[in-house]
Amino acid sequence: MCGLCGEIRFDDEEADIAAVDRMTEAMHDRGPDGSGLWSQGPVALGHRRLKIIDLSDKAAQPMVDGELGLAVVFNGCLYNYAELRDELRRDGYRFYSTSDTEVLMKAYHRWGTACVERFKGMFAFAVVERDTGRVVLGRDRLGIKPMYLAEDGRRLRFASSLPALLAAGDVDTSVDPVALHHYMTFHALVPGERTILAGVRKLPAATVRVVEPDGTSREHRYWDPPYTRGALPEHAGLDAEEWRRAVLDALRTAVRRRMVADVPVGVLLSGGLDSSLIVALLAEQGQEGLATFSIGFESAGGEKGDEFAYSDMVAERFGTAHHRIRIPDARLLDGLEQAVRAMSEPMVSHDCVAFYLLSEEVSQHVKVVQSGQGADEVFAGYRWFPPLADVPRERAAEVYAREFFDRPHGELARVLASGRLLDHDASGAFVREHLARPGADTALDAVLRLETTAMLVDDPVKRVDNMTMAHGLEARTPFLDHELVELAAACPAELKLAHGGKGVLKDAARRLLPADVIDRPKGYFPVPAIRHVDGRVLDLVRDALTSRAARERGLFRPDYVARLLADPDADGTPTGVNPLWQLGLLELWLQAQGV
């Protein structure tokens, strides 16, 4: 639902409203329905609006309440905003709009930073207190909505996208060596606060940061699911059938919550279990004429480029208004380059371009969609989870790294230029530290916590937000409803691992979906031309990696690049990442950002 940005000065200067304006305009695609700026001394805010709830100008942002002494910018959706508004009215608050933005502002006035604990939804926000000069930044529990930061001691800038910060200027755009290690090792993502650029950081998920006028700040992590069997006492002692019902009820609630909008809501229907289950539950709740959308590409490398057989089956069964979108290879290359420019961070997954092109088409029909993203991380659907089933807790990091890392630390010497090598295993240390934290019963519990609170945030969640919002399309993810995630975290591991993964979810779906959809081989958004890096995509990658910019940057060993260009499908990683695409995508992204 939009893009936000702002600047806070700590050097007795007024905020640079021109820089905030540049950030705002850089996020035009995130919010094509309107824009606004606000400033007061050392603080300025900017906003691009996508109209979803309260389509009137009363909901425009930045929103300022002179009586309460607050100004706010907000990106996301509070699905329980109507209930919160009723509660706040009973406490004496008056409302001038029907927006969730005004609810957020008054919830902050009523409960302070603890307001986030009452929110059910996805959100990133900034609240400015007029009388104290304090600024509060917040992000939702699963990091569904982004918040990028650039700080240099004189000021702090923040924005919903990294390119917006670059548009403001004065950002250190050198490549962060630890982030590069993560990118080349940890499934091509950069977890935690870092980004690939040394001068940009992220506000972590489930975090509130309070920034004082003198530049001092404090952060508080307000949500951290324990991943223990006793975490939810009301579910203690449930048998398999009772867990099935509990999961289905929680998902039913999550799907219903995400229909809150003043515009129609559609579904991205891949034909897999997760998106099909969303369609089934919406049909169960009486949704008629639901718009659903599927995408397909041309075959390549002996690999089929669509899964229309399954999405058609689901669409027909539930009577949706279904849209089949087939992308010819001629359009794929343009879409690929546009998708790279739309990335806030380099994202290797081949389905980025699928999401980008699908979103482009979907945005012509609806402004909001539900997506099945996150189910595999939450309910143990990937192939690297079963090997952890009986592993001693102290061996979790070792087994996870073997199954999930693209390459061990020792192999980076043949990939990265000598000046880019770290003398320590940064990715291994990150994983070991995360998995060693208390509060997870088993090795699998610890890894699922890592996947849900770290990997998920910085790969699939970011991918969906970037690619959909590039077309002013809001994606909602019911499998990332925090109450559903808490329930899944407490669910016994054997129920999640059953039936090849996502067992409890598959059992929950059996009374709603055909067995052919539930028990099918695991699917994905197939983009064969990228998975195999051939034709015009290979030409694009070759040009990027052999360009003057790449040579001057010197990230990779030239002999390794040459070997991959000679054999584009060489050295496949354990998770199926094509190493040539991994290297090429990073260089393409850096060049697209002009750094």
TrEMBL record:
It is an enzyme of class 6 (ligase). Residues 2-214 form the Glutamine amidotransferase type-2 domain. It comes from the Bacteria. GO terms for molecular function: asparagine synthase (glutamine-hydrolyzing) activity; ATP binding. InterPro entries: Asn_synth_AEB, Asn_synthase, ASN_synthetase/amidase, AsnB_N, Asparagine_synth, GATase_2_dom, Ntn_hydrolases_N, Rossmann-like_a/b/a_fold. GO terms for biological process: asparagine biosynthetic process. Keywords: Amino-acid biosynthesis, Asparagine biosynthesis, ATP-binding, Glutamine amidotransferase, Nucleotide-binding. L-glutamine binds at residue 100. It catalyses: L-aspartate + L-glutamine + ATP + H2O = L-asparagine + L-glutamate + AMP + diphosphate + H(+). Its EC number is 6.3.5.4. The active site is at residue 2. The keyword ATP-binding applies. One of its GO terms (cellular component) is cytosol. The keyword Cell membrane does not apply. ATP binds at residues 268, 295, 371-372. Pathway: Amino-acid biosynthesis; L-asparagine biosynthesis; L-asparagine from L-aspartate (L-Gln route): step 1/1. Pfam families: Asn_synthase, GATase_7. NCBIfam families: asn_synth_AEB, trio_amidotrans. Belongs to the asparagine synthetase family. PANTHER family: ASPARAGINE SYNTHETASE, ASPARAGINE SYNTHETASE (GLUTAMINE-HYDROLYZING). This is asparagine synthase (glutamine-hydrolyzing). It comes from Nonomuraea wenchangensis. The lineage of its organism: Bacteria, Bacillati, Actinomycetota, Actinomycetes, Streptosporangiales.
